[in-house]
Amino acid sequence: MPNLFQSVSLARESLFSKTGKRSLFEKTYQYLHTSTPSLAKVVAVLYEAGAAAKEPRLLGCKENELGLRKFLEDRGHKYIVMSDKEKLLDQELPDTEVLITTPFHPAYVTAERIAKSPKLRLCVTAGVGSDHVDLHAANKAKITVAEVTGSNVVSVAEHVVMQILALVRNFVPAYTQVIKGEWNVGDIAKDSFDLENKVVGTVGAGRIGYRVLQRLKPFNCKELLYSDYQALSPEMESAVGAKRVTFEELIERCDVITINCPLHDKTRNLFNKQVFDKVKPGVYIVNTARGAIVDRDALVEAVKSGKVRGYAGDVWYPQPAPKDHPWRYMPRHAMTPHYSGTTLDAQKRYADGTKDILERYFDGRPFKPEDLIVHNGEFASKAYVQPEK
């Protein structure tokens, strides 16, 4: 059902279409628009950027508020922005109608939090990846979960290729030598390879995974493989020269594995000790999907043993990663904070996309189907359709 602002807007346009005049109704509309108490409470949980927030294009931080304050307050809504994901958020949730979060500083929307948020109707992920929301609980509560589909795909795909090359070419130890004032070519070259003629595979060939394959094609890899629950079209496979294989075949054959699948019940800890026992010895793994897809301790052991020659990515669990997270200190890694999908270009895309989702919600217009994860008590995205345990 439309809220007051939506009803007034529809009546306003209906009257104008019939009379061609706005004067009297415009005054009434303007009065309601400016005098009505906040129509909806919108809460955004964003990371603090400190001095970096002076860059106005850094829209995804707490200080720059996704550029949404004027848009929301001009419509009469209340907009609260915070970085705290615990006590302060819990205090605000009971009367919050719209919650905005990001994958880069995820506020975990658990079933318990949803139960304490009776007015919550919309959860928006400013970016891509809504696994920080309990989607089953959101469905039961008839809460819509939407994200800005496609906003990060180019940014993440480029990051994947960068980190593949950083591992294969042994970049991090080479860079470390330079900043330490050292020079030992042999120590670096003994673990440096070409990407050409290697077997590279992606677990997941959706919007990001496919773009990774596109960017890998010019490197003349021996084979490009992918494992996914649904096949690419023959035309798409031919365009990148990729072949679909089972997950088991992929992990056994690949010199380089890149993880580009969503996190859900079936992919949580997908890369565990049993999988690491089966991978090709000396494999490189890049994970820019979600940290929880990889078993934390099993990975550390696989890297220390040399079964995994190197690991890179920008995703951790939990986030931010605690100072004692073992991935920070394991050998042969090229990890970064979670920033692959939040370049300044990507931030413009997901800020604009978040605004579009909010406009559609407040105006009572349909959401873009591709942005919906759960809606009307059902899964709207095949990527997250998993049986409830």
TrEMBL record:
Family of this protein: Belongs to the D-isomer specific 2-hydroxyacid dehydrogenase family. FDH subfamily.
UniProt-annotated binding residues for NAD(+): R207, I208, D228, P262, L263, H264, D265, K266, T288, D314, H338, Y339, S340, G341
InterPro entries: D-isomer_2_OHA_DH_cat_dom (IPR006139), D-isomer_DH_CS (IPR029753), D-isomer_DH_NAD-bd (IPR006140), FDH_NAD-dep (IPR033689), NAD(P)-bd_dom_sf (IPR036291)
Molecular function, one GO term: formate dehydrogenase (NAD+) activity
Purpose of the protein: Catalyzes the NAD(+)-dependent oxidation of formate to carbon dioxide. Formate oxidation is the final step in the methanol oxidation pathway in methylotrophic microorganisms. Has a role in the detoxification of exogenous formate in non-methylotrophic organisms.
EC number: 1.17.1.9
Name recorded for this polypeptide: Formate dehydrogenase
Compartments reported by the entry: Cytoplasm
Boundaries of every D-isomer specific 2-hydroxyacid dehydrogenase NAD-binding domain copy: 161-339
Catalytic activity annotation: formate + NAD(+) = CO2 + NADH
Domain D-isomer specific 2-hydroxyacid dehydrogenase catalytic per the UniProt entry, residue ranges: 70-366
Subunit structure: Homodimer.
Top-level EC class: oxidoreductase
Key words of the record: Cytoplasm, NAD, Oxidoreductase
Important for catalytic activity, annotated site positions: R290, H338
UniProt keyword Membrane, yes or no: no
Family matches, as Pfam families: 2-Hacid_dh, 2-Hacid_dh_C
